[in-house]
């Protein structure tokens, strides 16, 4: 008999115990398990072997759209029963699924693409599972966020994810303000109908930052468009329409832009901000103060001087 090498540990097919905020949930406590199964964001070959096994062995698959999930299940000849679980029925469906889990069922939760709960339904059900001490097991899969970031050419040491931005212009610009001082890459999802409008907001709020538009990731018409925000906007304006799922990445402000904001006289900088962002004088003074790390009152005194 060969002796096992020191330092090597056997990898279990499933975790024996899952620690949750509500305590440990185990298959031995009589409760079921909720599996969060990552599904392909485009190319069906991206699904993992583990995900396929979990989908086959589950008692039921809760789907954001059963019709979309059936395409995946039929392709891999998986016959597991499905049920709908989406943003419009979460309030009533989540408690129903909890009852099944408390009776010992194994439920696989999937979204139309990617990981459940990431800009897709799932958070409410996970939260209820933790409250009821039901094990929640992630089954990792493809992610548009990580795939686009890795291929973007933008810094990957730090990034923040906003999901979908608000539809209304003022709210959207307010959300983009959060990226102003972030020293990393900002990632958002956007509707193809609002891509150009969002780019205009990026230029107005953040300046002519480097951006990447990753469209139709892993699909036949995959496209990764890189450049300064204004240049990408001009390219998109020449297209009759933009189709498909869009992941947007926004780079951090360059050192030259930060330096310019500090070297321009404050009064001139306030005027620039008023023109670029279409804001009133006091709001521009407030932003200029924030750029220079001084108080608003100090900025105002410099301005009137």
Tell me what the structure shows.
There is one protein chain. With 305 residues, the chain is α/β, with parallel strands linked by helices. The chain has three domains: 17-142, 3-Layer(aba) Sandwich (Cobalt-precorrin-4 Transmethylase, domain 1), CATH 3.40.1010.10; 145-253, Methyltransferase, Cobalt-precorrin-4 Transmethylase, Domain 2, CATH 3.30.950.10; 256-304, no CATH class. It contains twelve helices and twelve strands. Strands 5-4-6-3-7 form a five-stranded parallel beta sheet, with helices on both faces. Helix 10 (266-277) crosses helix 11 and helix 11 crosses helix 12. The longest helix has 13 residues, at 90-102.
Brief summary of the model shown:
This protein has helices at 49-57, 66-75, 90-102, 123-131, 144-152, 169-176, 195-206, 229-237, 255-263, 266-277, 281-292, 296-304, and strands at residues 17-20, 23-26, 33-37, 60-63, 82-84, 106-110, 135-139, 159-164, 185-190, 210-215, 223-228, 246-250.
The unreliable regions are 1-13, 15-26
Span of the ends, CA to CA: 87 Å
Shape by Cα distribution: elongated
Might you state the CATH topology name of the largest domain? Cobalt-precorrin-4 Transmethylase, domain 1
Number of strands: 12
What's the CATH first level of the largest domain? Alpha Beta
What is the residue-mean pLDDT, rounded to a whole number?
A: 87
Q: What's the alpha carbon Rg, rounded to whole Å? A: 24 Å
Sheet/helix structural class: alpha/beta
- Helix content percent band: 25-40%
Number of helical segments with 4 or more residues: 12
Summed up, the domain count is 3
Walk across the major sheet and give the strand order. Answer: 5-4-6-3-7
Q: Could you state the CATH homologous superfamily of the largest domain?
A: Tetrapyrrole methylase, N-terminal domain
CATH architecture of the largest domain: 3-Layer(aba) Sandwich
Strand content: 15-25%
């Amino acid at each position: 008999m060969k002796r096992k090498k020191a330092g090597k540990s056997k990898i279990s097919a499933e975790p024996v115990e899952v620690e949750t905020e509500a305590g440990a949930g185990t298959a031995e406590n009589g409760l079921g398990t909720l599996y969060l199964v990552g599904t392909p964001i485009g190319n069906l070959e991206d699904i993992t072997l583990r995900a396929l096994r979990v989908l086959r062995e589950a008692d039921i698959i809760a789907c954001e759209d059963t019709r979309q999930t059936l395409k995946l299940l039929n392709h891999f000849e998986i016959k597991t029963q499905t049920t709908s679980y989406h943003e419009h029925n979460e309030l009533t469906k989540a408690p129903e699924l909890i009852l099944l889990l408390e009776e010992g069922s194994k439920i696989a939760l999937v979204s139309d693409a990617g990981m459940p709960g990431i800009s897709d339904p799932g958070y409410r059900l996970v939260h209820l599972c933790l409250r009821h001490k039901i094990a929640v097991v992630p089954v990792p899969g493809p992610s548009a966020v990580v795939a686009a970031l890795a291929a973007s050419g933008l810094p990957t040491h730090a990034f923040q994810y906003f999901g979908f931005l608000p539809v209304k212009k003022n709210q959207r610009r307010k959300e983009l303000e959060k990226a102003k001082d972030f020293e990393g890459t900002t990632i958002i999802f956007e509707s193809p109908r609002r891509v150009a409008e969002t780019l205009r907001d990026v230029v107005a709020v953040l300046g002519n930052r480097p951006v990447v538009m990753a469209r139709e990731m892993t699909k036949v018409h995959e496209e990764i468009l890189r450049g300064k925000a204004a240049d990408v906007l001009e390219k998109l304006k020449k297209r009759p329409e933009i189709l498909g799922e869009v992941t947007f990445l926004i780079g951090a402000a360059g050192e030259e832009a930060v330096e310019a904001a500090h070297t321009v006289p404050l009064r001139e900088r306030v005027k620039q901000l008023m023109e670029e962002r279409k804001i009133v004088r006091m709001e521009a003074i407030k932003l200029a103060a924030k750029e220079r790390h001084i108080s608003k009152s100090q900025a105002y005194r410099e301005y009137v001087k």
